[in-house]
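Two quick folds needed for the group meeting slides. Do the first one here.
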Amino acid sequence: MAADAVAPDTAAHEAWSLMGRLFMDMRPRMLRVASEFGLSPPQLIALKTLDPAEPVPMSGLAQALQCDNSNVTGLVDGLAAQGLVERREAEHDRRVRMLVVTERGAAVRARLVEVMAQLPSELAALSAADQRALRDVLRRALG
């Protein structure tokens, strides 16, 4: 069998392994960006997940982050301490706490999204054709 004629199962496993390696190789970048914004990585992800135009219950953030509601409390405490989010009573139920991204939080989030969207050098180094092929394969994989 030729070197590039890898059995599909083996190729899929290698692709999966390479995606994992790419993700792990990007971890220092995420840690650096989080640090630049004075956030922990989970706070960065939480703020990036929140939509400044849509208040969300704390349980909604927990669901979006796929974590337990109790884990969100500490994340929100940190974001609130920096003035990035506020907890407000829900209009429909005073027991429910809604998370609202503050004006400062929206500005920080916008800048954060901009920085995180910058293409890593490893992907920028690929040819335009390879970038399109990678995009197309990932689109198909994600449905």
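Then this one, please, same format:
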Amino acid sequence: MPKLTVENVGTFDVEAGKRLVLALVEDAAVDQLHACGGNCKCTTCRVAVVGGEPAKITVAEKEKLEEKGLTGVRLSCQLLVEDDMAVQLISRLEGSGRPDSGPPPETSIQPEPEWTTTD
């Protein structure tokens, strides 16, 4: 079972293959934003991966990060926890001014993932 370390929160056992956004909300119990419901449309679920960053990325995530001009971050809705990983939270409900974190994300990556490498 992979370990997810969330800076300033703790380390948690996570079911292998679970979406990172769900691991943050369900296993780490943090108020991670996911305003679009985890569908790679908004970038509110971004995190900084500080250890164990996956070498693969969905085409949707790569395109959305490029569209928004974002570097050094990943979208938690597009990542699977397959190995030990450490992340720094960036987008939380607290202090965001939003009424809630967003609609519950599906258990599988949306849209249907097409994988490529991060380089």
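Slide caption for protein two: The chain has one domain: 3-94.
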